[in-house]
Amino acid sequence: MPTTHENLKNAFAGESQAFMKYTTFAEKAEKEGFRNAAKLFRTTAQAERIHAQGHMAADDAIGSTADNLVTAIGGETYEHNEMYPPMYEQAVAEGHKAKRMFGYAVEAEKVHAALYQKALEAVKAGNDITESDIWLCPVCGHIELGAPPEHCPICNVKASVYVQIA
Amino acid sequence: MPTTHENLKNAFAGESQAFMKYTTFAEKAEKEGFRNAAKLFRTTAQAERIHAQGHMAADDAIGSTADNLVTAIGGETYEHNEMYPPMYEQAVAEGHKAKRMFGYAVEAEKVHAALYQKALEAVKAGNDITESDIWLCPVCGHIELGAPPEHCPICNVKASVYVQIA
Ligand SMILES: [Fe+2]
Ligand SMILES: [Fe+2]
Ligand SMILES: [Fe+2]
Ligand SMILES: [Fe+2]
Ligand SMILES: [Fe+2]
Ligand SMILES: [Fe+2]
């Protein structure tokens, strides 16, 4: 019998994936003209968010922002150093279309780790990061502070494609 | 060496959990007054959503809305029949505070499965569900179509606590 700590990790994994699937299925239902079914998917996604965040809280997995940045840097570093490189190589070997997003992700996670590191240094000194303009490439997940680059250094789209998240 | 299909499942799990953690960490950063760090967490969460949805697409895991409802019903049924009951029992045995959300979730997933089943019957007949008012209990994840119940049948909060998701 797994411990409750182990159960919380597994339930968090399940709820997080349910959230993401339902969010994606909502977009598809909207495209197919099922507006109320899309709303049901979005609403249920939020129910799963409540469950996932409740499990995190019960597992004491929400720390101070400094703690949370350390956790985030650990995840990003694992992804770009260990997780994604062999996945990318395998997709290339199979000629699988997954290689596109694996290739984008391995580069984007490196950028995320560096930005979180910058934020950690500020927060440890009691400060916020100074840049309030934070730009996202919606094709590959690249992020740039201040102003978007002329072309995305990962996927090469133009600056005008970048968006900010409210 | 895992196949790309297996890698896509694992990468989707990782990205979905990163999305949920960063969303939660953003709320915490906001509470601690780090508004720009909060925005960095929210923006990075969206980058992980892009990766997760790209992996779903590369794995051909986004079907028609009817297919997606079948997938969703399968997940909800697994959670309320198999996954959550032993987790709840173990939390009770440990006297762990996790039992609260495990108890809410096991009941809420049953409701989600039934609502998705209702939506599936409509969609299979070429129709949308008729109710556009869809109410969420933000404490336990209960969902009700049409109008909120006087008290949540799972966690007992009043109707006025229920919310709708845009
Ligand atoms: Fe759930
Ligand atoms: Fe990342
Ligand atoms: Fe890009
Ligand atoms: Fe990612
Ligand atoms: Fe559910
Ligand atoms: Fe409730």
From TrEMBL, chains A, B:
InterPro entries: Ferritin-like, Ferritin-like_diiron, Ferritin-like_SF, Rbr2/Nigerythrin, Rr_diiron-bd_dom, RUBY_RBDX. SUPFAM superfamilies: Ferritin-like, Rubredoxin-like. Residues 1-127 form the Ferritin-like diiron domain. It comes from the Bacteria. One of its GO terms (molecular function) is oxidoreductase activity. Coiled coil: none annotated. Keywords: Electron transport, Transport. The keyword Electron transport applies. Pfam families: Rubrerythrin, RUBY_RBDX. This is Rubrerythrin. It comes from Chlorobaculum limnaeum.
